[in-house]
Specification:
It contains 15 helices and 13 strands. The chain has 445 residues and is an alpha/beta fold. It has a single domain, classed as Amidase signature (AS) domain (Amidase signature (AS) enzymes), CATH 3.90.1300. The two termini are 22 Å apart.
């Protein structure tokens, strides 16, 4: 109970300005905290791995009795009758939900603002994006409003908010965490293949604990895969591909410095770091656009046009304009080409079990960087291609903070084969030890 009270005090102190948590049910939260305290007194052996831990749930996952608005005014009264599978798992692990975190409409921008709840500010600097689509989740964890945040990621929506807020953010392998939410009528192929749910927190150990709580009991989700969390050799140093050149992109100097710093940390810990280029990052971006934006045209764009939100409309239109024309032939060929490229990635990951690459090629972006037309969006997509390529190949990815650059958070991305999240976390701990974030310096942190 005292832990929850402390976090609520923090929410009262800073959330009014940051706007990360946009819905709370404190009566329900404190009732759950009392139940957790009673269980500890009565049967301490039954406590779960997140017993009493205050956490937040993103607005696009179902929480029974609450609206799954996903930042869309037309969905503001879409009340969930039951918890999504990941929320049910977190409750079983003993977590206490302190609130719901903000998103862009449809969870489809790297900038978190919407007509329902307004803008979520980055705690380090107001004029820089808080990230998206798990921007509220990242700010809540970064500003100390919760111990752990739930997020989702189809093109970087966990890893990018973690990057710009100085967090560890894990995109697990799709299928690792059950994704089913009862309010979602249907999930297109791209959403099934590319999207993942995972944790964000200040420390790798907290992310690891969150992952452990999220993964079980997913039989109601046909995409869920029951694979052990641990595999032999995950904690041991391995061969690492250092990727500091991205096709058609120019890495910001601070991104290049962060990669070099992380490479030195891994080398000192016994990892064998070599320069190597994974196959087809640019092709992976092209395939992601061909598949996802075809599905957006079919399943989401009419609702985007119907909204009174020029920002989401401009952003989605520009992204559609960057994609190949939508037709059945192009969609089918993109799915087939993806299979061949994914095979090449698997061969690469046999040689290099760990990849160290940019999270983004840019320093954290100013607000509205996706609203300047098609050519600007094309350049933005190229700079975000390290995020998108990992999603397109259905791989796990982890943003690891490396400290501050020019007063803003900086980080790198680690990538491994499917279902080897523990390998990412082990390497992330090595980099984290050499690059503790100065949370006391963050105005909202």
């Amino acid at each position: 109970m005292e832990v929850l009270q402390a976090f609520c005090g923090r929410i009262d102190a800073v959330n009014g300005r940051l706007n990360a948590i946009v819905y709370e049910d404190r009566e329900r939260a404190f009732d759950m905290a009392r139940r957790r305290d009673e269980l500890l007194r009565r049967a301490p052996g039954e406590a779960g791995c997140l017993h009493g831990v205050p956490l937040t749930i993103k607005l696009n996952a179902d929480v029974a009795g609450e609206a799954t608005s996903n930042g869309v005014p037309a969905h503001a009264r879409r009340i969930a009758a039951q918890d999504s599978l990941v929320v049910a798992n977190l409750r079983r692990a003993g977590a206490v939900i302190v609130g719901r975190t903000n998103v862009p409409p449809f969870s489809f921008r790297w900038f978190t603002e919407n007509p329902l709840h307004g803008r979520t500010l980055n705690p380090w600097r107001d004029d820089i994006t808080s990230g998206g689509s798990s921007g509220g989740a990242a700010v809540a964890a970064a500003a100390g409003l919760c111990a752990l945040s739930h997020g989702t990621d189809i093109a970087g929506s966990i890893r990018y908010p973690a990057y710009v807020n100085g967090l560890a953010g894990l995109r697990p392998t799709p299928g690792r965490v059950p994704a089913y939410s009862p309010t979602v009528d249907m999930r297109f192929a791209g959403l099934q293949m590319f999207s993942a749910q995972g944790p964000l927190a200040r420390r790798m150990d907290d992310v690891a604990l969150g992952l452990r709580a999220m993964v079980p009991n997913g039989f109601a989700d046909p995409t869920w895969v029951d694979v052990p969390l641990e595999a032999a050799g995950d904690a041991e140093p391995v061969r690492v591909a250092l990727v500091d050149e991205i096709p058609n992109a120019r890495l910001a100097p601070e991104v290049r410095d962060a990669l070099a710093q992380a490479a030195r940390s891994l080398t000192s810990a016994g990892y064998a770091v070599e320069h190597a280029a994974p196959p087809g990052i640019d092709e992976a971006l092209e395939l992601w656009l061909a598949i996802v934006m075809t599905e957006v045209r079919v399943g989401m764009f009419a609702e985007v046009e119907a909204m009174d939100d020029p920002s989401i409309l401009a952003s989605v239109r520009a992204m559609i304009d960057c994609a190949p024309p939508a037709d059945l032939h192009g969609y089918a060929v993109a799915l087939a080409r993806r299979d061949g490229l994914k095979r090449k990635w698997h061969e690469f990951l046999e040689r290099y079990p760990l990849v160290l690459m940019p999270t983004s090629c840019r320093a954290p972006m100013p607000w509205g960087a996706d609203l300047h037309g098609t050519e600007s969006m094309r350049m933005l997509l190229v700079d975000q291609s390290p995020l998108i390529a990992v999603a397109a190949m259905s791989l796990p990815g982890l943003n690891v903070p490396t400290g501050l650059a020019n007063g803003m958070p900086m980080g790198v991305q680690l990538v491994a084969r499917g279902f080897r999240e523990q390998r990412l976390l082990a390497a992330g701990r090595v980099i984290e030890c050499d690059a503790a974030m100065p949370w006391c310096d963050a105005p909202g942190g």
